Structures are given as C-alpha cells and as structure tokens.
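Q: Could you write out the predicted structure for this multi-component system? I'm mainly interested in how the pieces pack against one another.
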Amino acid sequence: MIEMEQEVQVPYSLKTWNEFKNYQSTCYRNYLYASEGLRCMGSTWSVLAPLKGLGEDVLVIGGEPHAASTAGTFPEESREDISAAEVAGLGFHSCSYLKLFVGEVVRDKIAITDGTIKEGYPKPDLIWTTHLCSQHSKWYQEVSRRLGGIPMYAIDMIGGGNAEKDPKIVKYVCDQIEEGIRWLERVTGREFSDELFIKAARNEIKVLVLWGNICALNRRAPAPLDERRLIALFPPAMVDRTTDETVRIYEALLKEVRHMVETGQSVAPDQRFRIVYFGIAHTYGHPEIARILRDAGAEIVASVYTFGTAGNFRGFVNGNWSWDPLDPAWVDELDLSSRRDAISALVKIALGWPTWQGVRSYWALEQMARAMVTEYRADGLLLAPSRSCETDFRNGYIGMQRIFKNEIPTVEYDTDQVDVRKMDLPGSQRKTELFVHLMEAHRKGVHDR
Amino acid sequence: MMEKGSDTIIERFRHITEKAHEYAKSLSQGKEQLVAGYMCTHVPEEILYAAGIIPVRILSSHVSQAMTRSYMHETYCSFSHDCAYQGLQHNYDFLDLIVTSSSCIHMGEAFNIWVRFAGFQQKSYLIPFPHIMQTKPAGGFVAESFGEFKQFIEKLTNKSITDNDLERAIKVYNQTRRLLKRLWEFLRLDNPPITGPEVATVTLASQLMDKQECNQMLEQLLQRLETKPGKAASGVRLMVTGGACDDMGIFDLIEHLNYSANLIFVDSCTAARYFWFEVPEDRPDKLKAIAEGYLGRIPCPAKDNVPGTGERKRFRFIQQFIEDFKPDGVVFIYQRFCSPQPNDVVALKPILHKLGIPSTELELDTTIPITQFGTQLEALVEIITRVAP
Amino acid sequence: MIAAGVDIGAVSSKAVILQDGQPYAFSLVATRTPEESAFRAMNAALGQIDLKLENIDYIAATGRGRTQVPFARITVSEIACGAAGAVHIWGPSVRTVLDAGGEGCKVIQCTEKGRATAFLWNDKCAAGIGRSMEAFADLVKKEVTEIGKIALQSDKFPKIGDFCSVYAQSEALDLIRSKVPVEQIIAAYHYAMAKRIATLVARSGVNKDFVIIGGLAKNPGIIDRVESILKVSRLAPKPEWDPALTAALGAALFADSFYRRQSDTSTTAGVSQACLTYPI
Amino acid sequence: MNTGKVMAGLDIGHVNTKAMIMRGQEILGYCTVPTGFDVVAAAQIALNQASDGVGISRGQLAGIVSTGIFRDMIKVPPLNVTRTVPEYVADAKGALFLNKNSRTVVDIGGNVHKAIRYDQNGNLLDVIQNDKCADGLGIFYTTMAKAMGLSEQEMSELALKSTKDVPIAIQCALSAESEAIDLMCQGVDIADVANAVLKLIGERVAAMCTCMSLTKEIVVAGGLAKSEALLKRLPSLIEQDVSVLNLPEYAGAIGAVISYEG
C-alpha cells in the first residue's frame, strides 16, 4: 500500500503531446485529401506493413481509431451516424464503432480529429482487414457492398491466449498474409517491394514495443501518465505505426516519460488510490467518471485496453503473465532478411497483443488482470464492459467480478464505446462513487486490522 | 399449442428433443459408453464417433432464468445464456467431455462458463477452427487442428483411432446427412407426407442422438413416408433463414396460423446448415477429408467472408434453396443481441426484393411471444395472399 | 347489414360498428384480460345504439388478443386492418402507416386500396413505448393526456438515450439531480421516444402520404417530434375519427366485406378457433 | 448516539421519499410520499407529515440527515440539510439497527436494487448494484399491477394463488412487460402472469446477489420487500434464509438518523 500524503505537486504537461496530435490528424488529412496515392481501409488491428510494400504513397484509415476519435470530436455527428446506420438496416445491437463508420458512408461524409468534416466519402481502393470478432469482418463487407464492391481481404487472426507460441496458428496466419500479398499485387497491379515492406515491418514492431515500455513506467509511484493521456497517446500507433515518424515520436515520448519518472513527476500527481481498469475507452461518460475519481485522488494507472491494443509485453513466461516490456534493442536485432521472416515476426507480435490474447481466452484475461493488479499495486479494480463490443470480453469481466470481489475493491459498470444511448451514465456515476467509497473503506479496514 | 403427429417414429424423435439431456444420460448410463457434449456444429463429430464416443449437441432449455446474468453479460444472446445455464444447473455433469470449436463469441462464452464455473475445467477441449471458412490456408490448418484433437481423444480413451475407425464414422455420418437431405426433399412437394416442423424436429433430434440409432429410425421413417399419401393441399410456403433456433414452437406456430401456411425450409445451424454437406469418402487422408467437408459447409454468418471480394457464400446457397423449395415468403430469425445474423439480413433483403419475396423478422429470446409472432406471420401471409377488405 | 370490428390491444380495446358500411357506433376501453375486454368494448359500443350482440351480422377481431374474442367470426392481423382502416379514413393517397400503439410500433406500407404490402415490427428493445408513457406520467405526477402538450413547451432540453424506454426513464429521473426543470425533462423523454419511433419508420421507409394511427397518435409531444425528425408531415387526423380506432375500423371493414362474400368459400382468411366453440 | 435528541432522516429515492422521526433509538413517526420532480417539496411534505403526526415541531428537531439518490438536493432552503450519507451506508446502518444480527441487506427499490455487506458496527464491507438491464424493477412492478388492474398488494396475493409457472423473458422490465401482456392475450390465468412477474424480479435480484458472498443474517429492505410472494421466492433463489425487516422501506431513513454521529 502506497500513501501519497506529500503536498500536491504541479501536474506535468507533456512536451511531445502536440507531435502526437499532429501525426494523427496528418494521417487522416492525407487519407481524405490526397489527390493520388493508394487509399487502404480496414481494421488497424491488422498488420499494416504489408500494405507499405505497395509503395510510399499508401494511405491508411482504420475503423476503430477513426470511429473513436470522431465520436470524441463530434458527439452530435456520431449520434446521427449511428442512427443513419440503423435506419440503413444494421442491427440495433451491432458494434457502435461499426455503425458510426458505416453511418458516415451512408451519409456520404467523413469527420476527423482536427475538427473538419469532408462532404463526399473518400472511396478506398481496397480493404485490408482482420476478422477479430463475429461481426468485425461483416463491418467491411457492409462498407464494401455499399460502396459498390470494394475489393477486400480479411485475415483470420485466430487469437486466444498464447496463440503466438502455437506454430500451427502462426503458420496459418502467415500463409494468409503471403496469400494476401499476392492478392494485393493482383488487385493493385503494383509490384510488391520486400524492401519497403521489411522496413515498415521493423517500424511496426518497434512502435509496439516502445509503447509497451512507455506503459511499463506507470508501475512507479506516482505513475507518470493517467488514463486520459494513455487513451490519447496510443491511437497514433493504431492509425499508422509503420513510418519512421511514428518510431521517432514514440522514442521521444519514452525519453520524456523516463525523465518524468526520474524526477518523480506525473500528469496527475495526486494518486492516493491506484486503479487498474479493464474496459474499452468509452468516449461518452469518461470525463464524468474521471472527475469522480480525480476528486478522490484516485487515478487509473494501468488498463489492458490502452496498454495492450497497440503494445507488446513479455506475456506468458512459463505459465504466468508478465507485464514486463520487451527490450527495444531486440527489435533492431530481429532477422527480417526475407519476406517470410518479416511476416512471421509481425504475426507473432500481432498475436501477442494482450487484447488478442484476451478476446477468446478467459484464462489469459484473468491472468493479465491478476498480474496487473499486483505489478501496479492497485487499490481497486474497475471493470467497464462495453455493451456493443464483442472483443471487449464483456463476459470475462462479469466472471472477473465474481473472482476479484473478495480480494480487492471491484466494481463493474456498463458502458458503450461510442454509442451515447447505451452508456449507462447515471449507473456508472453511482457505481464509481461507490467504488471510491469501497477503496476508502478497504484502506481504513486494512489499517484498523 | 402443438397437437402431436400420428407417426410413432416422429413422436420418438420429438420425445428426444423434448428430453434432450435425459436421452444423453440414458446413453451413458450403466454401459461403458463415453458421451461428449458439443456446442458449435463445426466440431468434427466423426473423430469422437471413431473413438467410440457419442457426441450430443448442447441446446437450450427455454427455462426463463436470470442465474446466468451474473456470469455472462446481458448482451449475449439468450441461446448462449441458456446453454451456459445447462452447465451451471449441472444438467450435464454426466458428460465425459465438453467440446467446442472456435465459434461465434457468444457461444464461445457459453463454453467458457462450463469450463470456469460448472466444473468442466478438466474435461473440456476447444478446437481452433477458422473464423473465415474460405481462405486457402484454412484446409491445412483445420486438418492439423483436427489432428491435435484426435491425439487428445486418443489420450483420453487411451486407444488409437485408426483410419478404418475414421472411415466408418465418416460413412455413418454421411449416411445421416443423406437421409436427412432426403427427408427435407419431401418439402419440395406440393403436398408432402410430412410437415416442415416435423422435419425440423427430426433434424434437431439427430444432433442429440447416437447416429446409428438415428440412421435406423430415419430409414424406417423414409420407408413409411415413401408409401404414405401426401397431406392436405399445402398453403402459403414459408422459408426460415437465420441463426440457431431449437424452439420448435416457432415452427409449429407457422403451421397453426389462422391461415393455411407451411414451413418448407429452415436455413440455420440447428437445421439445414447442420447436415447440408458431406465428408468426401474417397480421400486417402481422412483428417484432410473431414477438414474439407467441414470447410465446404453452408457457412455460419460469423465465418462467411470470401477473401478478395468479401462475398457471402451462404447467399448462393439461400438462392439455390429458394429456387428448389419455391417459398412465397421468407422469415428471418435471429437471436436478440446476435450481430452476424442481422448484418447478413441487411444484405439479403435486396436480393429477396429482386425476387419479389416478402419477408418478416422474428427476434428470438428464451421464450417466444406467441401472439406477436403469430400476428407478424399472419400479416406476412396476408401480404402474400393480398388480403384486403 | 351490421358489421363490427374489435381491436384487443395491449393497453386498450376498441370496437367499431358499421351499418351498411357507414360508421354507426364505437367504443374504447382499457384492456384487462382480452376476453373480458372484448365484451366490455363491444357492449359499450352496442349500448350507444341499443343493439345486442346477436343483432350484428358479422364480427371480425384484430389486435394482440384477437384470438381470445369468442364472438368473432374471423380474425385479421392489425397490420392488414391498420392499412384498411387508414385508407378508409384518409383516402387512397395513403402509402405509409405508422401504428404507434401501447405495446408495439409497426410501420405498414400499403396500396391505394388499403392492402398492406410490407411492414416492420419494432425490435424488442423498442417495445412498450406507449405504456412507458403512462408509467412516466405517474412518475412526474401528471396526466398521461397532459404530458404530450407539456413536452412541446420547451424547445431546449438535454438529449437522453433513445435506445430503450427503461434507460430513458432512468436518465430522465437522473436529470432531476442536475436540476433540470420538469418541462424540459418531459420534453427530453418525449424526444427520445419519438427518435426511437422515427428510426423504425425511416428503417421501413416513408412514402407519402404518411399517417399515424394508434394510441400514441394522440400524443403531440411524440407525433410532432416524429414528424420533425423524419422531415415529413402526416395527414391531419380526421375530427370524426379517433386514430386509436383505425385498426378496429379496419376489422369492421373486413367483417363487412366477408359478410358480403360469405357465400364465396374461397376466402383466404381463416376462421378463428375460438368462434367454432361459440355459435352466434 | 445521544439518546435524548429528536432527529429526522430523509431517504429521497428515484420514486419515493421516506421521512423518519426518531428520539435516540426510539422510532416516533414516519411517512412516505412520491418523489415526483420537485424533490425539495416532496422532502418537506414527507418531513412535515411525519413530524406533525407525532406532534414534533421543526424547532424540536436537533437535526436532519438525508440519504438516497437525491440526498444532495435538499441542502437548499427551506430544509438546509447539512448532513448527507450515501444510500448504501444508510442502508447498512438502518438494517443493522432493525436487526442486530444482520450482516447483509438486500435493498429492492423503485429504480435500483443492491446488496450490501457490513460488519457488526455497520461498516461497509462490500456492495453490489444492479446491471443496467435490471433497472426499474420497482417501477415495473407498479406498471404491471396497473396493467392488470390490480393494486400491488393484490398482485402479490394473486401471485401466491398461481398454480402454474409460466416463463417470461428475463432480459429486462420491457421484454418481461411485453411478454406478460402477450401471455394475457393468449388467455393465460393472470394469477400465473402475476407470479411470473414476481419470479422475474426475484430472479434478477438473486442473480445480482451471487456476484458477492453474502454473510448471514440476510435481511431485505425497500418497497418491494413488502411483497409476500417475492419474499417467498427469494430464499430458494439465493439459497440462503432471508428475513424481512420491520418497516423495510425505512431502512435508509433510519440509517441516516443513526449515522448522524458514528
């Protein structure tokens, strides 16, 4: 148990912040307005480097990060997008990222983080995506259908705890990507450059490892970063992590956060309670919840979603999960001399994402939670399943509540990633207030004993 | 609401569907017989059968209960909740094994509940199976994955499964599939000797049964039907397409409207999609053959995405069924909270519209609102028959 | 010739009696159990014209409880009846009918002859909007007939979730905490429900002319919003017809025409099971 | 707690506002009014009716403590309540006061239900609150009684006469409501429908409870605790004995008074 009873410090403000914001919106602007170049759409939960083998003019837009940032920037537009998708016939219980994204296609306009809305939906040349939940590849099937049959290739990332150590699965995914590369050549009529691909692959892996290192610094007290910053700082890696520029900004961020730790600084220094959070970033209600926590000096210092969606860690080491980061130097030494080498290195990294591990493997998820609670010396576990997200292991959370409640203050509240209508704000506020109260009571109890 | 048909064999099948877990229990009782439960129809039953294990499908009980709500999130479909409930209620403790293959996430979680909270940790197996059926590498992957499952079963029973064992199992299962297909073919007739709900019931029972017993009963049934005169002139022909539905009440409802209407086809994983394929018998490599068979099925909407085009292969089958069975109307059924199904409906409707076939959607839950569904179905029939004052 | 239609809805039961195809009497009562409500509705209408059940030549039943009406000769779905009734009331230009009832919302597409060609039934999460209005009225301690007008008094109000009336209710209750004036809360709740209904209508497609029938058609707080969200205005309600009676009227029209066609056995409509055991 | 003092506790819930007047450990008077949308007015009326009933003037009140979801809204004139406690804290204290051996209270309110575990001093150990889909069970109960043309009391009594378990969808009040209506339209006996409604409520509450280990004795509070039919079901559903508190709907208001000092 750590007490932070020292005088309240000045919150640290990140110097690299703007570089991240700029990188993200530049990527989107390029995709929207580029007069030439190859527009590629799809889940950025796919390995992206293969696209880069097609040339230096490849522009990508990814479903989840785009939907999430649009919802954050344009709450009203997003409402309209989602209901437009429902009017167009999509399921009332389908993923709200999906519906927001399709809604933009239906309304033939697109809104991006820098606050601009472009009339006329920029048609992609191809769709390169993954199949991660039961509805995820339906997402792009629908987009492809509505835009008159955009060629699409979905990779079956058959996840599940430890998948990256299962040669059968690694081979299966690698083979699909090799097939995919041949398909990319056919459908674009371009020649695939292994040189460009391998360079992009190394960058992609590097960024994922760097982010892991940045997150791992939050084990220190005070944790240098809070949930709000974590949520904002990983999307650039989701948007496009294959460029030299991404590697540069994440290296800069790592350097800066290391310095924060050395000088004991934090973006949110008041951390009487350290919270581990399992849940997707729910755009709506997040500020309200965060305020309740901040008023009580409680900060979310670790979350599987912000850590594990675009970050890699050691993962399972002889049966136990470890949130230790991987050494960035290891990436530079990786042997990526052949196309197949690069593909399998990428596949192992992608299958190793904690989010992947958890999606179809309750035991991996449970181990991650256990490890995170101990490694990050958490005072409480906050579970926030998202109503319309299948990959958000909604079920795992309900189970975890049963398991953790007797060990540590644990509260579960209902959210939705971008559908404000499904966000249970009143209930979430009630339950968060309760959560704080339980942590206080627990700490008091521990002291009395 | 269902008046029992006269045919004693059909009654026997119906009894099995109504008392699913009692039947499964009777299989395992006394004898040395091993019985395994399976949750997704992509589990290669042949491998279990070759090892002398009888696979029985875990279905829902339609008992309204809230127990599972504290294990599984609200927004999982009632079918998965109900299947999880079977485990939590310990209805199936007698099973020697619970198996599933990478399925839709909802059913995957039902399986997890059994493993985590219903005491099946030590007797469970998850078969990695593609989420996209049509990729080139899928074949090799599935064969390997089935191979590992075979080894697991061999360890469990500690006796090896020979190619002959597999070949026998494949033949038995293909036989079931052919017999069921013949049964459904009757429904193409104007006045079949058997009703759609009866065929659906028999098909559901086959998923719970020892296939040898099942095949015998099916053969007897077919013999009788071939000689039996057709039933009264049929009414409006309705085809059902969608997700898992083991609630035969819905199908009975179709035939007990205030109008004469008939159920003539059901495309779902509890009906046609369960058996509408065969495992090639001439292949030297039996595991590859089984893999080929299971990948060639009518795809589940959660697994249907042709690389390159994103086409849904299932739609081709549906159009074929429409051609063969000539429905006047289509009834979409899907579990509330299911995502893949309704997302396919969006793309299917324009196709039906082109064919001039009206449709309605029934959203399934643990129980069925009979008067509402009845009204929806009667309204559909009224539209087809152009009823007006 | 006297024909009658009864509509046993989830919240209210209605009866319409036609004499030689012309409106003769009608009634609207609260639904308790379907059979008992059927008699109450029918007797209420009969009372107006001093007739007895046996004086009526032919009776058709519609609505959720239609199979429980012992004295009905035929049953017809509220979809077909809604379309028939709407075209009878508003004329052949009607193409889309929104039936906003107590339990369910249905959108019906129809021909100039009042024949339904397609329909959309509300999804489960959009059920019970009509009834939820009553519960909501109780919570705000207002008359259910009043809140609709109050809802239109404020054009500025917070947006609350329109996905489910239970969530909307919780959110509305919670607005009190943020000290939102009651009129605005009522407006917010109505807007949310209207949005949910509008989504269903748009999903099914609106073709002009558009009309709204059923109990909620009498709630301006819902209807005006539905119109503004859909950017389409409905044909104004007819003073002589309570929109809640439309389906019952449709049933009466069916009864009328079936009586005339009685000799013809090729009628497509079946005879309700109940009436076989109930000779009139 | 100072035994002499006359104190008032106000429990302002989503649906009802409960007022309780106590002298030390002694309950003097109480009263419930619907909260409606004017919380301050409702609180005042409840308080006045409760105190007038026992001839206590505002001046005699040593203090007012408020709890419940809207507890903070009466910090304004005329009541100027200065002390508030969260509803789960008040529930725990109140339940313990009404039953010294109780260690868990299950509170079934109009819009929210929860289970609270506490020690012998009424200190909070753990709490579980309902899922979103289970909101509004109390309101649902009222609505269904109305739909059947019965009082809540009558519906509960009728449910006890039920001879047949009819299943209804468990998802939420909405689905249950439309299926209950559907059953009535099928001509199902309304006693069985009433029973199904109460079964659903019991099931939902019990399901929530299993997420947390409940320590004995378990008591039930909240307006729905008054339904005999519901209470008959609960023990078998949560597989433990439960007893109803005396004045179940006032546990929160009493707890507010108790927690005035320690």
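A: Regarding packing and overall arrangement: Residues 425-448 of chain A form the longest helix (24 residues).
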